[in-house]
Amino acid sequence: VQLQASGGGSVQAGGSLRLSCVASGRTFTNNVMGWFRQAPGKEREFLASIRWRDGGTGYASSVRGRFTISRDNAKNRSYLQMNSLKPEDTAVYFCAAGNPILSALMFERGYRYWGQGTQVTVSS
Fold it and tell me: For 60-89, how does the pLDDT look when each residue is reduced to its tens digit (9 = 90+)?
């Protein structure tokens, strides 16, 4: 499975960006797509997840209400709509795919495949 993330860029505080992640290969072997981010000097942080089958979603408290995850099964794509961006949202954003058990849904260890990351920079 290969994942390609795109859509990052530079935006002012309060602005919006939509990230996209396209999956290719044996995509049917993975039932969850997740989004994470990593700021300089910090650990990778879970943001949101979505189940391919029924669209069930989960969010980190830090982004709930501002970020929305969605998917397009026909295109093997997941999206992360990010609104009301803040300077502290500046990070490299990654998409990931896997079959995490519930206890691992919000952790890197739950995901087997990772995209290359896309940079998001929010200026004040």
Answer: 999 999 999 999 999 999 999 999 999 999
By the 8 A CB rule, do 33 and 23 touch?
yes
Torsion of CA 111, 113, 115, 117, to 10 degrees: 40
CA max distance for the chain: 41
Q: Kindly tell me the sign of the dihedral angle through the C-alpha atoms of 102, 66, 27, 74.
A: positive
Answer for the pair 81, 16: CB distance below 8 angstroms, yes or no. Answer: yes
Name residue 77's beta-bridge partners.
Answer: 22, 72
Total residues found in the chain within this entry: 124
54 contact partners, CB below 8 Å, separation of at least 6: none
- Answer for the pair 57, 49: CB distance below 8 angstroms, yes or no: yes
Helices vs. strands in the chain: H and E counts, helices first: 0, 11
Q: Is-contact 69 51, C-beta < 8 A? A: no
Q: Cα separation of 72 and 88, whole Å?
A: 29
